[in-house]
Specification:
disordered N terminus, mainly beta, 2 domains, four-stranded antiparallel β-sheet, Neuraminidase, five-stranded antiparallel β-sheet, 5% helix, Immunoglobulin-like, globular
Length: 478
């Protein structure tokens, strides 16, 4: 049964703006975490925690029920302008933590950004290494985008802004104003439409990216003073900017629409409302929201619910929720069991500080108190890791990864819950070890080798039943 709501902020009945005779749901809001600084991107982790990246570059792991905030990393050198540059996008590797990587996009100078691959240490509970996948990305004080998403095809999708340089959005050799499609090392997906990283182009300042259950990709982006957009993204599509704004509905745009074969948006708003983070929702926890896009807005300070048609190619109706009740909304996250989380964006340094309240910035949950949510119990990352390992192999005395960069693990008999181990270097000298070490997860020895130099080592493991094994260990510093 749904846990007790900790702090009630508001209640509202919802229904379609068309007045369709649907049953209405009473929704409540409550605070999950507070005193954050512009939580820009929310990700649901396999550990059933919220992973959050703030605009400052701080990455935290947040318990969705207790609200405890654990700092995982602070990205060094994040550049924040008077406007919206800073840390912009984050995602976990789809096989996290077996593949212990986080991906982050941020600006590191006024006109430059990066996409980095961070390595998380299971033993230390922190990010311990960083590798830059894309450097010298164009950047600016605003219009940087961006969002990261895993696609159903197993590739990484990454949207970027035009950086106030509108024409680069039409330049297929420039990464600005695009949706990029890459593997998990930042290389172009092999079947991309233009033979490089570009998947779609002609975008202005996209700040929302999400996939539907049927595999449609949707993107939200800021217009100039008119025509904010939501687009359905297709491979090779040109979305018009800067030659077309929103729909092709002016005489000046007519010739451009014909020559560009511009794909029109599925929704647009004039004057602008500043759309931001977006998630697809299709869960019975809120029946009226099934098959919708949930879209955050900054300027108009609300959550918009966009009701899609059956094939996901058009918006049939929309409604506004909690307008000017929570302030600017930056991101929305939908958990696998239908829980919905909103992130406020009131402590930005671009002139909106007066909106901040004592609790800001915060993460707020949308609750249907009448729905019996499936339990998604928050758990340790080690538990997730062991499940992944157990699903992959039944072998024992397997050491991985090889070579190791930060952590190394050894899969032992499942009943083993205590070991002694020693690591020797190539000259036979003992360089580390432990006696009678209790295993947090039975059958899995995990420890950090971050302090060892690159080279070949021997790991000797002895279990409490007298069994011992010597295994070669390769360590490689990045």
């Amino acid at each position: 049964m749904m846990r007790m709501v900790k702090l009630m902020l508001a209640g509202v009945c919802i229904g379609l703006v068309t007045g369709a005779p649907l049953a209405q749901t009473d929704l409540l809001l409550h605070n999950v975490a507070k005193e954050l600084t512009v939580p820009w991107d929310l990700v649901w982790g396999p550990d059933n925690h919220i992973w959050c990246m703030e605009k400052t570059g701080r990455i935290t792991r947040i318990h969705p029920d207790e609200g405890t905030v654990q700092e995982i990393h602070q990205i060094p050198g994040v550049y924040q302008s008077f406007d919206n540059s800073g840390a912009h996008a984050m995602m976990l590797h789809p096989d996290f933590p077996a593949q212990p990587y986080l991906y982050v996009n941020y600006t590191y100078s006024e006109f430059r950004g990066r996409l980095d691959k961070l390595t998380y240490s299971l033993s230390e509970g922190l990010v311990v290494a960083s590798e830059t996948l894309l450097d010298q990305l164009p950047g600016n004080s605003s219009h940087n985008g961006s969002r990261l998403q895993e696609g159903p095809d197993g590739y990484m999708y990454f949207c970027t802004g035009d950086m106030y340089m509108a024409m680069i959005a039409q330049d297929l050799d420039n990464l600005g104003g695009k949706v990029l499609r890459m593997d998990w090392d930042g290389n172009p997906a092999p079947d991309n439409p233009f033979g490089n990283r570009v998947y779609s182009y002609g975008h202005r300042n996209p700040q929302g990216l999400t996939f539907s259950d049927s595999g449609h990709l949707y993107l939200s982006e800021h217009g100039p003073a008119n025509d904010d957009e939501v687009n359905r993204i297709v491979a090779g599509g040109n979305y018009g900017w800067p030659h077309v704004e929103g729909f092709c509905d002016t005489p000046e745009e007519a010739s451009a629409c014909d020559s560009l074969a511009q794909i029109p948006p599925i929704a647009a708003w004039t004057p602008t409302e500043a759309p931001c983070g977006m998630s697809y929702f299709n869960h019975p926890s809120i029946p009226e929201w099934e098959n919708t896009l949930l879209l955050c807005f900054l300027k108009q300070q609300h959550l918009k619910v966009l009701h899609l048609d059956d094939v996901g190619e058009a918006v049939e109706s929309e409604e506004k929720m909690w307008q000017q009740e929570l302030g600017r909304l930056r991101d929305v996250l939908v958990a696998p069991n239908g829980r919905v989380f909103l992130a406020t964006s009131n402590r930005e340094i671009n002139g909106w500080d007066f909106l901040a309240q004592d609790l800001d910035d915060r993460i707020v949950e949308v609750v249907n108190p009448q729905f019996d949510y499936d339990e998604l119990n928050p758990r340790s990352i080690r538990e997730v890791f062991l499940e992944q390992v157990a699903a992959q192999t039944t072998a024992v005395d397997v050491l991985f990864p090889q070579p190791a960069h930060t952590d190394v693990s050894v899969l032992l008999d499942r009943e083993v819950d205590e070991v002694s181990f020693t690591v020797f270097d190539a000259h036979g000298r003992e360089v580390m070890g432990a006696d009678d070490m209790a295993l947090p997860v039975p059958g899995l020895l995990n420890f950090s080798v971050a302090h060892l130099g690159s080279g070949v080592y021997i790991l000797c493991v002895s279990t409490e039943n007298g069994r011992s094994e010597a295994l070669p260990l390769l360590v490689s510093r990045r």
